[in-house]
Amino acid sequence: MIKLERISLLVVLNRWLIQFGIDIRRTYFAFRALPSLFKEYFILKKYSDADWPVELSYPCLNDRFDFAGTIDKQYFHQDIYVANQIFSRDPFSHIDIGSRIDGFIAHLAVFRKIKIIDIRPVDLGLTNVEFIQADICSENFKMNNAVSVSCLHTIEHFGLGRYGDPIGFKLWEVGISNIWNIVDDSGILYLSFPVGKQRIVFNAHRIFKPSTVLNNLKNSKILSFVYIDDEGKFNETLLTNYSDIDNVVANFDYGLGIFVLQKSIVDSI
Q: Model's pTM, two decimal places?
């Protein structure tokens, strides 16, 4: 128990230090790599000449200790899964709110046009991507509907000020309502957010009990639910019941739920 507490405190300490440009893990492996670096440099230096000078100006000290092609397990699986879903459905229009540009948006831009909304500016210069700078959590937010909308790993940040956005304890509810309003009747929303023991980890993110979010999406139908557990494993399910979904992720520390939701048409009486 004491060992686990020490590890947890070390992780938290490293998170704080990273914000000031200090990474304990990278520093440790950098020092560990130094003997090999100098040994290999002087081996290669013996063969240098006027055509191929060897200089020691760009040290890479951590790569030898990483896995080949290191990935973020949540974003990697999420971006591929949702991009494949959209590719299969091939909607005539698609809008994204706040998803990762160098992952999910890059995947989509390969095969379709897309509008993206974010509170921070970006200059992509891509013909397939139209950027709109806006605050999705604004009470005055308005936008034309779309048959296909995505918002991945985003709503957990609403109202925490991390990205220069306004602070608001329940601003995420305004944001998710505005997102749901963009979805056309019978349209699809691809939505993901951290799941597990519900709390705010200030000022990084929220972690949700799934039904907390889903209860804000009136007339929604779950077409599919997949999740990534605390170990980073991607899990497919057949679950569509809120309580069953809550139970599956109840003990997660920081999992990820990925939902494909359809807005049902309610017939007026």
A: 0.88
